[in-house]
Amino acid sequence: MPLWLMRTFIVGFSLMVIACAVGLVVALLPFSGVPHSQAAQRWEQRKPVQYEMELTWNSDWSSGHVLAQIENNRIVGGTNLETGAPLVPIPKPSMNYFISVDNQFRLIEGLSQLPTGWRDQIARYHPLLARWLHSCAAPPPRVHYNEHFGYPQKIIYQGSSCHAVNQDVTVSIVKFQPLIEEE
After folding, report:
1. From the centroid of its chain, how far is CA 114?
2. 144-149, long-range: CB within 8 Å, 24+ apart, which pairs?
3. Quick check: pTM over 0.85?
4. Can you tell me the distance from the alpha carbon of 98 to that of 101, in angstroms, rounded to the nearest whole number?
């Protein structure tokens, strides 16, 4: 094999290894944007006592589009925008699961718990890694937070057949309006 061809092969192979390593590091870094702890702290500092939000969610077992008034983490009024029915009393238990920013933070924290084994932790970051290392590893949720109030504007979670949350879930706050600010 000519020397120039061997050098080209070595340089090409080295660049490919470096690109894979950089890709793996980027995949293992937490979601960019406002970190969860900073967003949760901002929410605790700025959350209004009463607020109204338009919310959509879609999962394997439930979907909805509502306009809800929340006071002290409870639904006090609102409308199911798909049916026009009032939200009080709450018609579906699944609605209470998503409707309230405090409940959404609890959901994110539960879904973000790191597994104990190193194989499970690495497997969460890509389906191929999960297939090779641990087939039950569910990826961490992807969350976009509001920069001012800190509430989760969008939560995307892919479930795993081995976990309690065994479905793909997307929750989006379309509109958020404080009605009474925390004093």
Report:
1. 14
2. 144/33, 145/33, 145/34, 145/36, 145/39, 145/42, 146/39, 146/173, 146/176, 147/34, 148/42, 148/46, 149/42, 149/43, 149/46, 149/47, 149/176, 149/178
3. no
4. 8
Distance of CA 36 to the CA centre of its chain: 10
Where would I find the beta strands (DSSP E) of the chain? 50-59, 63-71, 74-80, 142-145, 152-157, 169-180
Instruction: List the one residue out of 52, 46, 47 whose CA is nearest residue 66.
Output: 52
DSSP state of 117: S
pLDDT tens by residue, 79-118: 999 999 898 776 566 666 678 899 889 888 877 776 666 6
CATH number at 36-180: 2.50.20
> Which residues, other chains included, contact 130 with Cβ-Cβ below 8 Å and sequence gap of 6+?
123, 124, 136, 137, 139
C-alpha dihedral, 158 to 25 to 129 to 172, nearest 10°: 10
Residue 165: what are its φ and ψ, rounded to 5°?
-95, 95
The single-letter DSSP state of residue 146 is -
pLDDT digits (tens, 9 = 90+) for 10-62: 888 887 777 666 555 545 544 445 688 899 999 999 999 999 999 998 887 77
Tally Cβ neighbours within 10 Å of residue 182.
11
